[in-house]
Amino acid sequence: MEWSIFEGKWYPEKRWEYLNMWNIKVAEIVEEKILYGVEVNAGASEMELAKLKKHVRSDLEKDLPNEYISILKIMNGLEFNGFILYGIDEEFLEEIPKQPINGLISFNKDWYENEDQKKYLFLGESNSSWYVYDTKKKQYIELDNPSGQEMSKYNNFYKMLENMLSDSLL
Q1: Is 92 within 8 Å of 84 (Cβ atoms)?
Q2: Contacts of 29 (CB under 8 A, 6+ apart)
Q3: Which domain holds residue 89?
Q4: What is the CATH number of the domain that holds 73?
Q5: How far apart are CA 44 and CA 120, in angstroms?
Q6: How confident is the model at residue 16, as a pLDDT?
Q7: pLDDT digits over 8-19, tens only?
Q8: How many domains does the structure of the chain reveal?
Q9: pTM (global) more than 0.90
Q10: Rounded to an integer, what distance in angstroms lies between the CA atom of residue 148 and that of residue 155?
């Protein structure tokens, strides 16, 4: 995935039709990383996504939400100011990523040591929160880290991502 500047901000190329608040937040992060000579990981390939879907199904007994998959096509994971969006575990990648990736499957396996947390698919985290998808209720939730108490609910992944990115830019 190539990034282009548009009206003074960085955006994923050929993604103008999806331009909204989370894209703008990602662009701000990309801009800041560029200042320090750091690149954001490119989006995942269809083959990499297929491997991830297969292993999430077999290893975690869950299905990936389509909204999360659409973000992985743009950027495969992200780490910024204590915020982490999980990406595809490195053993499923075709190429070495520009930045280390916190793998979705490996982190979920860690969080699943607590039986109560197996109802969630963990998509990311920050210093104080976990960002999850409740696969039974089909709902995106921010949980307090470490208590696991629900803090916020979101209508969709993009709103949750926007909140995560906004917090990381503070």
Answers
A1: no
A2: 40, 78, 80, 165, 168, 169
A3: 42-168
A4: 3.40.1580.10
A5: 23
A6: 45
A7: 555 555 544 445
A8: 1
A9: no
A10: 19
